[in-house]
């Protein structure tokens, strides 16, 4: 009985030693990338050829869930308000005073952004989309 008890004690000791070694091995941490977007805002208007020009540039931003997003926003004409639905982000931007908007894309889906301030006759056409793809 004493031999069995010693063996059991030795097995338990080896088990916990192996477990502590395995737990001390560094595990890779999921890295989230940072996405930097340089964006301009301008009044939406009809060009001489009839095309609609202006608004947000870019009109579409695509990121992956978990990405850290930095939008460097500047206005080229009048004051605008960047409003991102689903993330409760609203940021004023004035000509000559660029702003930075930072957030983590932690919601998967398509989220519209628009100008939250009446900025011209075609104000309602000042829209864009943030597309957050599922990670993996």
Tell me what the structure shows:
The chain is α+β, with helices and mostly antiparallel strands and 136 residues long. It has 1 helix and 9 strands; from the N terminus they run αβββββββββ. Strand 5 (80-84) and strand 6 form a beta hairpin. The longest helix has 23 residues, at 2-24. The radius of gyration is 27 Å and the shape is elongated. The model has no long low-confidence stretch (mean pLDDT 86).
From the alpha-carbon coordinates, what is the Rg to the nearest angstrom? 27 Å
Please identify which CATH superfamily we are dealing with: Cupredoxins -  blue copper proteins
Derived structural class: alpha+beta
Q: Which sequence of SSEs, written as H and E, runs from N to C?
A: HEEEEEEEEE
The total number of structural domains is 1
Please, what is the average pLDDT?
86
CATH domain class name: Mainly Beta
The name CATH uses for the topology is Immunoglobulin-like
**What's the total helix number?**
1
Main sheet: strands, sense, barrel = 5 strands, mixed
User: For the terminal residues, how far apart are their CA atoms?
Assistant: 54 Å
Instruction: Give the overall form.
Output: elongated
The percent range for strand residues is over 45%
Q: What is the share of helical residues?
A: 10-25%
Q: Count the E strands.
A: 9
Uncertain spans: none
Keywords summarizing the entry:
136 residues; five-stranded mixed beta sheet; elongated
Summarize the SSE layout with pairings.
Blueprint: H1 2-24, E1 34-46, E2 52-57, E3 60-64, E4 68-75, E5 80-84, E6 89-93, E7 99-104, E8 109-115, E9 127-133
Parallel strand pairs: 1-4, 3-9
Antiparallel strand pairs: 1-2, 4-7, 5-6, 5-8, 8-9
